[in-house]
């Protein structure tokens, strides 16, 4: 069965303390991997799409990378406003337009 | 573009009542998705439509749940009768081709 897992479940960082979030998947044909940010009381907000191993995308303090079995979301010198839940979602070949979401990582950045 | 619009934002209803959630997708998006989010289970796909046609409804919990998409600009998710375990945040999302979804702000449903 295709599955998506994320680690850690929760992460607390000091402002400026860089770290990485992990998204791992078992897959029978990856079409794309997506990262989302979700703030409390809001819907997930699209961040990045990655399609092939070795691909990287950057946006401000965030950088997403992809290997054959996992993706990392690197956060460089985070600020308190980066606090949110980060979700990854995977689109598989046999799932049509559907995405399978991971459980998310709750990130807290303390000033 | 106003994004994906959901209504109502909050709904409190008594057990046994019918609940209807509404969604207006982004114009030009050909796929629409209904998700449910809870602390215990995270984001779960309930049903998705492609070009107004239901493609996969295997995530619909039971016959109490039904969804329709009468045209490209409107969809409803109905729960009848509602139960306390249906309490969750329900999200609608739309997309085109292989781009990431755009989510609405969600409807927080509380069934008492």
Number of continuous helical runs of chain A:
0
Largest interface: A-B, 22 and 22 residues
* Overall outline of chain A: globular
Counting copies of identical and different chains, the oligomeric state is heterodimer
- Content of β-strand of chain A: over 45%
Taking pLDDT < 50 over at least 5 consecutive residues as the criterion, the unreliable ranges of chain B are: none
Query: Helicity range of the residues of chain B?
Result: under 10%
Helix tally of chain B? 0
The biggest beta sheet of chain A reads: 6 strands, mixed
Query: Which sheet architecture does the biggest sheet of chain B show?
Result: 7 strands, mixed
Estimate the helix proportion of chain A, in percent. under 10%
Describe this structure in words.
The complex is a heterodimer of chains A (about 110) and B (about 110). With about 110 residues, chain A is mainly beta. Chain A is built from no helices and eleven strands. In chain A, the strands form two sheets. In chain A, strands 2, 4, 5, 9, 10 and 11 form a six-stranded mixed beta sheet that branches. A five-stranded antiparallel beta sheet of chain A has the order 1-3-8-7-6, with no helix packed on it. In chain A, strand 6 and strand 7 (about 60-65) form a beta hairpin. The termini of chain A are far apart. In chain A, about 30% of the residues are buried. Helices cover about 0% and strands about 55% of the residues of chain B. Chain B contains no helices and eleven strands. Chain B has strands at about 5, 10-15, 20-25, 30-40, 40-50, 55, 65-70, 75-80, 90-95, 100-105, 105-110. In chain B, strands 2, 4, 5, 6, 9, 10 and 11 form a seven-stranded mixed beta sheet that branches. Chain B has a four-stranded antiparallel beta sheet with strand order 1-3-8-7, with no helix packed on it. The chains are: A mainly beta (about 110), B mainly beta (about 110).
């Amino acid at each position: 069965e295709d599955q998506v897992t994320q680690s850690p479940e929760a992460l607390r960082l000091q402002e400026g303390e860089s770290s990485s979030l992990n998204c791992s998947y078992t897959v029978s044909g990856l079409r794309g991997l997506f990262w989302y940010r979700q703030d409390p009381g809001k819907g997930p907000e699209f961040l990045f799409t990655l399609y092939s191993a070795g691909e990287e995308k950057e946006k401000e303090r965030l950088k997403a990378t992809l290997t054959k079995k996992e993706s990392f979301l690197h956060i460089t010198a985070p600020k308190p406003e980066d606090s949110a839940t980060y979700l990854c979602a995977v689109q598989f070949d046999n799932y049509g337009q559907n995405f399978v979401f991971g459980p998310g990582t709750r990130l807290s950045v303390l000033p | 573009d106003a994004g994906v619009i959901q209504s109502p934002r909050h709904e409190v209803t008594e057990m046994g009542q019918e609940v209807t959630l509404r969604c207006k997708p982004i114009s030009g998006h050909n796929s629409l998705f209904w998700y449910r989010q809870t602390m215990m289970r995270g984001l779960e796909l309930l049903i998705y439509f492609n070009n107004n046609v239901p493609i996969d409804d295997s995530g619909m919990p039971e016959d109490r749940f039904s969804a329709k998409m009468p045209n490209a600009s409107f969809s409803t998710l109905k729960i009848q009768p509602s139960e306390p375990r249906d309490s969750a945040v329900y999200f609608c999302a739309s997309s085109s081709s292989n781009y990431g979804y755009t989510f609405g702000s969600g409807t927080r449903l509380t069934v008492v």
